[in-house]
Design brief:
By secondary structure, this protein is α+β, with helices and mostly antiparallel strands. The chain is built from two helices and eight strands, in the order αββββββββα. The longest helix has 68 residues.
């Protein structure tokens, strides 16, 4: 009888662990489809590029952009509503962060303009973060087919697991976004460093050549001063 009780308790523990594993797996799969997006593209000189992002009413759309390469490191930035109303307008900026609260549902237009530059192309990075779209994450509908275990089976609480997974997902997503932004800053600083290195190297070589020419000219001039070509009769 004691052996039977031990077997039943072990089976109950394994069943509880299996239920918890299925909950975690379902939570991770539900977090796989993220609404956030990021993109790096090359903006040619004298042209503009527009992108479209669908947003729902009463949500939040956060747009952050940086110019990471190109002469001047600046572009014109505009966000237009589905009806064509200009919500954000910026001119000749290298970076920016804007939070838009959509008052209507539809496709919002995000444009980058480099028409003021005739020769220099720009490399632009931007990221879009959508919040408040599709309802709360971690609800009861995300775990179809998984029944709530009764209290006598195990002490696992699915609500606590869901809340912990939701908090972990939000923090990991925020960390990923911050790392992406830091990589964009690093790429921009590296491009500036390489550009400045080329300029410093070029002007250093030019200065060395000028100094050599001046030195040779001075030596030649001094030797000419002491060069006496008059004949001496003895």
């Amino acid at each position: 009888m004691a052996v039977l009780r031990v077997r039943i308790s072990c089976r109950g523990g394994l069943l509880g662990l299996a239920v918890a594993f299925l909950c975690c797996t379902g939570s991770v799969q539900s977090y796989g489809q993220s609404q956030d997006s990021e993109f790096t593209f090359l903006l040619p000189a004298g042209r503009s590029e527009c992108f479209y992002q669908t947003a729902v009413k009463n949500g939040t759309m956060e747009v952050e952009y940086q110019v990471i390469a190109g002469a001047g490191m600046d572009v014109d930035f505009t966000i237009l509503s589905p009806k064509g109303v200009r919500l954000i307008i910026e001119s000749r900026r290298s970076d920016g962060l804007h939070v838009v609260e959509p008052m209507e549902e539809g496709d919002y237009e995000i444009c980058f303009d480099n028409s003021f530059s005739r020769f220099s192309e720009k490399m632009v990075f931007f990221e879009i973060i959508i919040e408040g779209q599709g309802g709360d994450v971690g609800g009861d509908d995300e775990f179809p087919g998984i029944e709530e275990p009764d209290g006598s089976l195990l002490e696992y609480k699915l609500d606590d697991i869901r809340e912990s997974m939701d908090s972990l997902h939000r923090r990991l997503e925020r960390s990923r976004q911050m790392q992406t932004v830091l990589r964009a800053f690093e790429a921009r600083d590296r491009n500036l460093l390489e550009d400045n290195l080329w300029r410093v190297s070029f002007w250093s070589c030019a200065s060395v050549l000028v100094m050599l020419c001046v030195a040779l000219t001075q030596v030649y001039t001094v030797r000419k001063l002491f060069d006496d070509k008059r004949r001496v009769c003895t």
